[in-house]
Amino acid sequence: MAAIVVGHKNPDTDSIAAAIAVADLMTKRGVEAVAVAQGKTNPESDFVLGKFGVKAPEVVTDGTDKKIILVDHSDLAQSLDNLGKGEIIGIVDHHKLGDVTTPNPLEMWVWPAGCTCTVITSMYDFYGIEIPKNIAGIMLCAILSDTVMYKSPTCTEDDKKACDKLAKIAGVADMMALGMEMFKVKSAVDGTPIRDLVFRDYKDFKMSGTPVGIGQLEVVDLAILDKYKADLQADIAKVKAEKGLHSVFLLLTDIMKEGSEMLIVTDDPAVVEKAFGIKPDGTSVWLPGVMSRKKDVVPKFEKVFGA
């Protein structure tokens, strides 16, 4: 039975590309593996897969009786249902180590990089396996997306080196032009159901036992979202109630202005001011320089909820 390689719930381009790349790499190492996803691909990922002629992974949401390689996450809240009824044989990630545990040793590549695909580029090098041109293309896009074209504070020199290498393999002459193409697709929200926008890049967290949801929408100009803000605010309130969460925060990130407006629904409004030192204006707050959920937001809230 082939192992499945799977990213987090509400998969982004990194989760999709990482699953495809690791499945390719593992299979070539003699461990049969297939890429799957925990949900449908978002518009940016559809654009990336289409541009490089790669098929979207099958959707799988249950880990029962499966051998599993996790990519782009190691948190139970973000992983497969019944994960404990399967066997985790590997983790490849660029986030903090989560709360997944295993009864047996496993292969782990968890590095402080801006994108999982940066780690995977080094894995291909380590095992002396050539990266296919089309997979190099989707990995390049994943890094440009996760690092917001190098603007994110999570971006490292390793990410930039990986992009240079992948661009040559994929035959991409202008990485920044490709990145802008992607972000224009990501910014196109007209006609998209509000719940799909909220969940486009959304993750659940347990912060010292407190359940918190944090989503992010990245656009080239925040004005694009002006007419949707009231509906987005109403829907994150519904998500909070449906999931029984303490708080839901939705980052509306302006790529060009390099900051985020955060929409807020919480049982304790003081947590936002404690975390960022800025008092919200009603149910939102502008956070200058905040581009990354992973580096700019989650650690600050974890400190507050853990106090």
Describe the structure.
The chain is an alpha/beta fold and 307 residues long. The protein is built from 10 helices and 11 strands. The strands form 2 sheets. A 6-stranded parallel beta sheet has the order 3-2-1-4-5-6. A 5-stranded mixed beta sheet has the order 7-8-9-10-11. Helix 1 (13-28) packs antiparallel against helix 4 (133-146) and helix 4 (133-146) packs across helix 6. The radius of gyration is 19 Å and the shape is globular. The model has no long low-confidence stretch (mean pLDDT 96).
Question: Quick summary of this structure?
Answer:
The protein is built from ten helices and eleven strands.
Basic shape: globular
Distance between the termini: 46 Å
Got a strand count? 11
Reported for the largest beta sheet, the result is:
6 strands, parallel
User: Which stretches of 5+ consecutive residues score pLDDT under 50?
Assistant: none
Q: Beta fraction of the residues?
A: 15-25%
Based on helices, strands and strand pairing, what is the structural class? alpha/beta
Portion of residues within helices: 25-40%
Radius of gyration: 19 Å
Give, in order, the helices and strands. EHEHEEEEHHHHHEEHEEHEH
The number of helical segments is 10
Mean pLDDT: 96
Q: If strands are numbered along the chain, what order do they take across the biggest sheet?
A: 3-2-1-4-5-6
